[in-house]
Structure prediction request, 339 residues.
Amino acid sequence: MTKIIVDCFGGDHCPDAPIDGAIAALGSFEDLHIVLTGDEAVLQAKLAERDYPKDRISVVHAPQVIGCEDKPTDAIRLKRDSSMMKGIMMLRDDDTVSGLVSTGSTGALVTGSLIRLGRLQGIIRPAFCPILPTMDGGIVGICDSGANVEVDPDMLRQFAIMGSIYMETVYGVKSPRVALLNVGVEAEKGDSLRQETYKLLRETECINFVGNMESRDLLSGKYDLVVCDGFSGNVLVKTTEGTALELLGMLKKSIFSRTLYKIGALFMKKMFADMKQFMNYQNYGGSVLIGTSKVVVKGHGSSKARAVEKCIEQAYRMHTGAIGPRIEAEILKYAHYEE
Prediction:
């Protein structure tokens, strides 16, 4: 039985989205058991309204909630009975628990995971790796997207190794094409950090490094994993998502601006619906925190049930694919990384 904890409070659509996402995930994996953390009275009342396999969902009482306004270090110290911290501590102390999914505070989740769970052997710093759809119908991972603002070449090489193993383990991408985010595709482009990282990635035999990538090519389908520092990665992801949403909004506004356009849109209704689903981040889960000793998945704060379900699927596949031992085995081949 694979047991995954779902933090039911802290996100915009809690606790309904985590509950519904958990129930939906049970239908995909017969050996999955979900542990819901949060106010037990609230959770039990919500569950009573739903039809689900009673023996595959359990509830752990956690009356406190960590909000985005809480300082991460204070939250993990003062709110030990929060749904997030109860989940993290269970993940650390109970060997039968395989992973944690949360849509709560990113800062608290990262800080709590680093302090309470620790890192895989040899890992300098864990990194976030979200997934975006590409124009050819595939996906691309971005590692890192916010966990590490300041990095060095060794950290970026580790992001490339961890991200490659993640893309292959969870999504079945064979020999993922790895690119380094830069201001140009030429090898000599960028600052000293990017130039030194380029040399390291080119020398790393366990990854399929294909060179530099300019941000405009993120969704081109030419790459499976983009390696970058957390600041650049966060800007890259949010700019891409925001641009897509604004373009869809502008398209909708234009369609309704003239009767002729409305008539034409009726014949393209299916295409527009497919496009909307394709660009909907709810269908792609969350950002996995790769490099911690246990599986942690951070869902978007506005995640609805579908997104939570996909987050649980990510956690499930990371555990069953033994991603932690695989990452350690590759990282420790480079002796100078070992602490």
